[in-house]
Each structure stands twice: as structure tokens, then as C-alpha cells.
Amino acid sequence: MTAPAPRTRHKFLGRLSLPERNFVAEALRTETVGGVLLLVAAVAALIWANTAGGSYEAVRGFHLGPGSLGLDLSLQHWAADGLLAVFFFVAGIELKREMVAGDLRDPKAAALPVVAALCGMAVPALVYVLTNVMGGGSPAGWAVPTATDIAFALAVLAVIGTSLPSALRAFLLTLAVVDDLFAILIIAVFFTSDLNFAALGGAFLGLALFWLLLRKRVRGWYLYVPLGLVIWGLMYNSGVHATIAGVAMGLMLRCHREDESEPHSPGEHIEHRVRPLSAGLAVPLFALFSAGVSVSGGAMGDVFTQPETLGVVLGLVVGKAVGIFGGTWLATRFTRAELNDDLAWPDVFAVASLAGIGFTVSLLIGELAFTGDPLLTDEIKAAVLAGSLIAAVLSGILLKLRNAKYRRLWEDEERDEDLDGIPDVYELGNPDYHLRMAAIHEKKAAEHRRLAEVAGGESEDGNGPA
């Protein structure tokens, strides 16, 4: 009787496949640019609010929109409920793509980032609740420190110049996608006001029509954009947070290619078009109208003394890092996954601490959790900014300690000596690649011999250096 073949162990943070690497590289490139714009918008909001607070409040409180449709909203609400729907639309497409073509399509491979993301949301919530139970604060903000802002995190990476290997970047991106999914569920379940069933039914009918048009392969943005706006308006008036409409439409798009003649799936094509709008306009404008809070010495001191704000800071800085790192370690301990030999557990902890940057969704949940208390809402926003800043500095230091290692791994991944557009590490088993490389090396050797002969001839004639 033959012995059963040993089961192969899954490599955690191993090298990505070439298509996945290319997708991650393009997605993160756009998010990084958007993250820099997000940083600029947040700084501009803070400066504006703390130097000309009256004009800042007047601008973000300016109302416009058709009141007869229930859409006479302030600019701040248009940014939070309208523009962020675009952000969540892209998040919905990302999630769908991950489930059908990315890391989440394989349950075994998906277990690690899903467990890590869940622990990375549960532990910050627990830290917040414990801080407020012991300090006598309000538990209403438990969800504020649970979110990760991928654009802000990537902007930090761009600023500190760390060349993270693609596997670590993909892990961070997958964490953020799963994080977004559960943040959406939290908003839908815990922050839904009294329901207007007529509007909600109309939104569901609109979504059904949206799905039917996609199913029938109907093309034309002039159909989908107006329909999407109607769905969004009905969802807003239903009492369910309007960003849920964006997620639902994103999840309906087809994100797999039906045959080789199709270069990109419809979901990937639309994401490629809409992501720059989300990262470059929607999220920075939301930051501009939401991040403007007082950062005077007294206000910042209160962040570390009030239980609600201290709970947010500790949740982001401590809870996120401990939750993601602990969840990842436990998942590898009880599954057949093992860490990539080129990386170490401190690398996972550094990325986990980077996920403590919770900006966009944390600010949104902060507004929803304390909507009846404007003063506490601003204090919670200040806590989100402080916690995100501390997490950014901490992760930056940890990543810098290993920057030489990351840069070597990154350079190995990016090296393309035969200039065919495909990194060499993905061609090592290709005979044509080895022939091309032999020809390139022979050409370089011939050039070196020619230069040596020229240098020798000049030396003999006395016309050049010996």
C-alpha cells in the first residue's frame, strides 16, 4: 500500500503570479497618487479650519440640491454620502475581483487575509470598548478604529520611500479590501436610521434593473450613470447609508474574462476608468470637508484624556497592529501556511501597524456614531488624525529598519535585463529567455573586449593611459 503523498504547504507572502502582480502594481500606483492628494487635502482642511474656521464652516455647511427629492444637503454631506459612494463602488469591484480572480477565490489562500482582517477589526473594537468601560465613556464609537485607509497607507509608503515587495503590498491591499467589506456591513447594520420602505423598495428595483442590463450585455454609460444616480438617491432617502448603493452596483459587475479574446473583464475596465476619479477627486474632497478640526494644544491634550478619543487612538495604534499580527500568526499556526523564507514576522508586524492608518472610513463612521454631538464628533476626528499619524510614524520606523532587505527583494522582482517587459524572475524556466540572456551577455562581453583592445592600442601608441 503506497503512502499518501504529503500535502504541500501554502507559502504565505510568496511571489505573486505575473497577472496578479501587474494588477496589484497598477492598482497601488493609482492609490498612491490618490493617497498623496488625500494627505494634501487633509493638511489643507486642518490649516483652513484652524486659521479661518468661520469660512471653513460656512463653506462645508453650504446647502444645495433638490429639496423636493430629499436631497437638499450640505457640501459636507454631499462629500460623505455622495462622493464616498464612488469610493465604495470601486471597493465593491475590488472585492468582486478578489473573489473571482484574486487571492480570495481560493478558500485556503483567502483564510489568512480574511482572518487577519477580522482580527484587525475585532481587537481595535475591543480595545475601544474596554477603554470606555474603564473610563466611563460612550461605547457608541466602537467601530471608529476598525477601518484601514489603503490610500493613506500607500501615501505614507510613498513619502518614506520604502520599496515593499509586491507580496507585502498585495497583503496590505487584500486586507484593506476585506476591511472595506466589513466596514460596509457595519455601516449598513449599525448605522441605518428609520427605514423608508417605499424608497428602499425603489432602490432594490433599480438594482434589479441594473443587474438585468448587465446580464443582457447592454452597453452605454448614458444608461448606467443616470440609473446609478437614481439608485443612490433612493438609497439615501430609504435611511440606509447611501454608500451601500455604490457597493451593491460594484459587486454586480462581471470581473472575469469569458474567453481569451476579451483583454479585460467589464469590471476591470470600469475600475480602471473610475479608480482615478475615486482616488484623485472623491476621497480628497471628502477629506477636505471632513478633516477640518481644531488642533489646538488643549484639544489635542483632550484626545489622550477622554475615554472616547483615547479608545480611538489606542484602537488604531495598538488594536490594529496586535489584531492583524495575531490573527495572521494564528492562521499560519493552525493551517498549512508557512511564511516566505525571504521575510520574517517583524515584516508582518510592520505592515500590521501600517494598517492602523484609518482615515476615510474612520472619519465617516465617527460622524455616524456621534451625529447628535458635534463637539464630540470633532474630538473623535482629531483622535482619528492623531492615531493615524502615530501609526504612520511607527510603521515608517519599522519599515525603514528593513528597507535594505525590501529594496533587494524589490529589485530582484523588477529586474528585466532582456527588456521584454516581463521581470526575469517570471521567465527562469523559459528556454527562449535563457537564449536571449546568453546573447545579451555575449554582446556585453564582446563590447568589453573591444573597449579593452581600444584602451590597449592607445597605450601602445602613447596617446592614451597605460
From TrEMBL:
Keywords: Antiport, Cell membrane, Ion transport, Membrane, Sodium, Sodium transport, Transmembrane, Transmembrane helix, Transport. Coiled coil: none annotated. GO terms for cellular component: plasma membrane. It is found in: Cell inner membrane; Cell membrane. It is a multi-pass membrane protein. One of its GO terms (biological process) is regulation of pH. The chain crosses the membrane at residues 36-56, 76-97, 109-130, 142-164, 171-191, 197-214, 221-244, 310-331, 343-365, 380-399. It catalyses: Na(+)(in) + 2 H(+)(out) = Na(+)(out) + 2 H(+)(in). GO terms for molecular function: sodium:proton antiporter activity. It holds the Pfam family Na_H_antiport_1. InterPro entries: Na/H_antiporter_dom_sf, NhaA. Na(+)/H(+) antiporter that extrudes sodium in exchange for external protons. Belongs to the NhaA Na(+)/H(+) (TC 2.A.33) antiporter family. HAMAP family: NhaA (MF_01844). This is Na(+)/H(+) antiporter NhaA. The lineage of its organism: Bacteria, Bacillati, Actinomycetota, Actinomycetes, Kitasatosporales. The gene is nhaA.
